[in-house]
Amino acid sequence: MESKRQQKMASLLQQELAQVLQRDLPHLFSGGLVPSISTVKVTPDLGVARVYLSLLLGTDAPERLAAIKEHTKEIRHALGKRIRNQARVVPELVFFHDDSAAYAAHMDTVLSKLDIPAPPPEDAEGDDTAGETPRPRLFK
């Protein structure tokens, strides 16, 4: 369970990293789409931040992640400029590919291909209460 301090730091890092990647360092992606940050998890000592990137469009996700990992030092430096007044130490950044959206899309296609038969219609003949008078309703 994350502490409030970890949650605040993770939220700050997520917002500021998004700004860094979109505004300060868009040249790192050479005209490609800037990845979105899906989650940031911070260790209890606030020394390491695990950043999960959503690299949806395109099949070159491993290459894009490798390019981001190459520029980790530059990204951390730009992040440090932005959060220098809010954080004492800029955490080490470790980037991971978040494929939960692709997994959800895959599960959606699998579930849509299932052939589930309709339930059988209910018979009035097999019902024992067919000849009885209906009970009055107490609640509507």
TrEMBL record:
Region entry Disordered, spans: 114-140
InterPro entries: KH_dom-like_a/b, RbfA, RbfA_dom_sf
Keyword Cytoplasm: yes
Primary site of residence: cytoplasm
Coiled coil: none
Key words, A-Z: Cytoplasm, Ribosome biogenesis
Locations listed in the record: Cytoplasm
Assembly and interaction partners: Monomer. Binds 30S ribosomal subunits, but not 50S ribosomal subunits or 70S ribosomes.
Family stated for the protein in its record: Belongs to the RbfA family.
Function text: One of several proteins that assist in the late maturation steps of the functional core of the 30S ribosomal subunit. Associates with free 30S ribosomal subunits (but not with 30S subunits that are part of 70S ribosomes or polysomes). Required for efficient processing of 16S rRNA. May interact with the 5'-terminal helix region of 16S rRNA.
Name the record gives this protein: Ribosome-binding factor A
Lineage of the species this protein comes from: Bacteria, Pseudomonadati, Bacteroidota, Cytophagia, Cytophagales
